[in-house]
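Subject: design request, 311 residues
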């Protein structure tokens, strides 16, 4: 009997537990102005490693060394992927001992694989055709994956912002102190922030010095939690001012109570700083990929009955 590699269902569960789960749980359990330290996120993949290794080893054939070795290797690779996500894609604040986290997770994976094989590896079960439930599970994974992908990008951008809070130069709307006029200290890019629950897709223009500039760089997945105790701001667009001096901000939207302010562009580290500018549909599609793989794998296994993979 050949060794069994994890199917898309197992990979989906691993990604859900080690990528969006740390960000979302921290958001639910902490105050909005607190940034998540990277150490709290790394505990998730490290502690999930022995669980995954045990699940993989429990379904392996009766060859202890190969079963434990393959289960540990696969788990360590997935652990490295999750650690890489929090190092280069969403680099949260604080410092982390990356090598120690990887080695510690690998050691826990060995222990988990030994336990998993001892429990289930001695009595491997013969697989049959995939159940139709795979289509339902895959469909749910598509929907929730798309939603979680957008939340992951948004929360990751918020917690990967470094430096001081963006400085405000002026704004427009009933919830701002100015009447739209502000002074740009230098030419260059400035961020437009939506105040509170203002729509995230305004048509904003800057006029001044006999010229007009439109906000031409929308932020598709708008990170929030900027601002202060009085109100929170979400970065919704970027506008480039050709010259310093006095400018007037005008934002058109369907909400008469909407307010917007101009400020410094947030400094977001990692690849997530570019991902917030991707079209929302692309982010949804990226999150839906694991669910689509589950559906495809279910269809393939139902057409060709044989030993079932761990899914």
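Subject: RE: design request

Done. Sequence follows.
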């Amino acid at each position: 009997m050949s060794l069994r590699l994890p199917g898309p269902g197992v990979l989906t569960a691993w990604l859900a537990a080690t990528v969006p789960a740390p960000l979302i749980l921290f958001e639910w359990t902490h105050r909005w102005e607190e940034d998540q330290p990277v150490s709290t996120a790394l505990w998730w993949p490290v502690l999930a490693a022995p669980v995954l290794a045990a699940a993989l080893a429990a379904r392996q054939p009766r060859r202890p060394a190969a079963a434990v070795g393959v289960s540990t290797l696969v788990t360590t690779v997935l652990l490295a992927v999750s650690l890489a996500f929090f190092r280069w894609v969403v680099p949260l604040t604080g410092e982390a001992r990356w090598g120690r986290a990887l080695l510690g997770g690998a050691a826990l994976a060995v222990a988990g694989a030994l336990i998993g094989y001892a429990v289930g590896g001695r009595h491997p079960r013969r697989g049959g055709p995939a159940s139709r439930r795979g289509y339902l599970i895959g469909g749910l994974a598509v929907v929730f994956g798309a939603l979680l992908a957008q939340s992951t990008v948004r929360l990751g951008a918020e917690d990967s912002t470094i430096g001081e809070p963006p400085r405000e130069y002026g704004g427009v709307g009933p919830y701002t102190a100015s009447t739209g006029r502000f002074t740009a200290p230098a030419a260059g890019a400035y961020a437009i922030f939506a105040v509170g629950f203002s729509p995230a897709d305004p048509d904003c223009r800057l006029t001044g010095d006999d010229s007009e500039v439109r906000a031409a760089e929308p932020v598709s997945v708008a990170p929030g939690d900027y601002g202060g105790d009085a109100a929170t701001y979400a970065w919704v667009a970027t506008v480039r001012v050709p010259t310093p001096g006095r400018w007037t901000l005008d934002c058109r939207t369907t909400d008469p109570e909407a307010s917007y302010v101009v400020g410094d562009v947030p400094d977001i580290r990692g690849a997530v700083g570019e991902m917030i500018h991707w079209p929302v549909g692309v982010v949804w599609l990226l999150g839906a990929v694991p669910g689509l793989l589950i559906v495809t794998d279910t269809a393939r296994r139902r057409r060709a009955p044989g030993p079932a993979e761990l899914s």
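The chain has two domains: 8-160+279-303, 163-268.
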